[in-house]
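Request: Show me your protein:
***
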Amino acid sequence: MAGNKSSDKKKIPRTKMPEQDPKERIKNFDEVALGYREEDALKESLRCLQCKKPRCIEGCPVGIDIKSFIRLISERKFDEALEKIREKNSLPAICGRVCPQEDQCEKECILGIKDEPVAIGRLERFVADRKLDRDFGSEPNFESNSNSESSGLGKEGSGKGSSIDSLSRVAVIGSGPAGLTCAGELARMGYKVTIFEALHKPGGVLVYGIPEFRLPKRIVEKEIEFVKSLGVEIKVNMVVGKIFTIDDLLNSGYRSVFIATGAGLPYFMNIPGENLNGVYSANEYLTRSNLMKAYLFPEWDTPIKKGKRVAVIGGGNVAMDSARTAKRLGAEHVYLIYRRSEKEMPARIEEVGHAKEEGIEFVLLANPVEIIGKDGWVDKIRCIKMELGEPDESGRRRPIPVKGSEFDIDVDVVVVAIGQGPNPLLTSTVPDLKLKKSGNIEADLETCKTSKKGVFAGGDIVTGAATVILAMGAGKKAARAIDEYIRTGVW
């Protein structure tokens, strides 16, 4: 590319994303970021330098050909741009919204060295939304290929390929990002894939964990419709480990099983008062609001305590989601209590900024030591001030309590968002499946192979709680390894 053209591109400012006004959005659960219009996407696509050796692709966990899809947008070939993305990513509308691009593809963008990087995620979302709206409309038939049968282990799907024999059936346990990705990849290869989902709707953390204002459920539903269009069958209300076991699946004709059950077991702080009424894990709080539609009261009569003064403990994306949900449920004050400084927060910079705009009150360098009750309900939360010492194993400076610095905050709801781990419901029924001390499944990170022949695992159930795109990367690796195993029989 000629130097003058490159110089001209560098002068184009990054195209801003239209957003709801903070004063209005705290009154609703509508999406905050409104998405690029066509003119926005075209303008932003022209910023791409079309590098000969694009580093951005190396920063993408699923290896999307970013350079090519952005070039296609600039040529107004929007459908072709989406097809280029879908060569590597079956869930682009989701990734365009929730992936931490600033730490992945955009972090490697050459433009970002001196200026702002190309808005890769926003462009991905633009082409995905455009096609999904046209193909599936605003209200997809979410139940068309899902069912709640409690007997039987699933019928054969309708994989698109012709090179796989008719007996090559694969079971996927869990319909979160890892499970959906693995299933989609295998279906493209021609396998007959059945996903078994424990909840009454597919999507995993995408539907129960991430709020509507950040990832609308209609988008998740449309992406799932696309995966089903590849021939994947999804069976809901199927709790593997209770209704049947992994051995039952293998004995019933499934050639391989991929475990993608995520990290759904909440962690608590083990401080006095955590058993009081009004204390929630973030998992429960967000599931009640998101999947069980508590925010749509009275249309959906799902009980949830709508406190006036809410404390959220933690500094990650789940903590931000919980705090911003509490605000929308009517809280006058939402305190985000985090034991380090803002610099060490693991949450996305964008989410931190949105939380501040919405009036979330950050209580930094503080750690709860007790939840104080009154008549069995939360009344106060007692914290101690912290100071930062030397870096710990995470690379962040270790928080150290300051003696005698305790203080109280009046609250009526506490949400604990300090992480989550593996649910043992399934793994406890597979005695020959090797686990780590944490309870996560021990599996090869490149092949996703476990200690049990024919069984693969990936995503948060292996790594612990991580990002959507990393779980998807594991799903892709698992699909390739499952294909090799079924074809060769070599374990």
In short: Residues 468-488 form the longest helix (21 residues). The first strand starts at residue 146 and ends at 147. Confidence is low (pLDDT under 50) at residues 139-152, 154-162. Residues 150 and 238 are 7 Å apart (CA to CA).
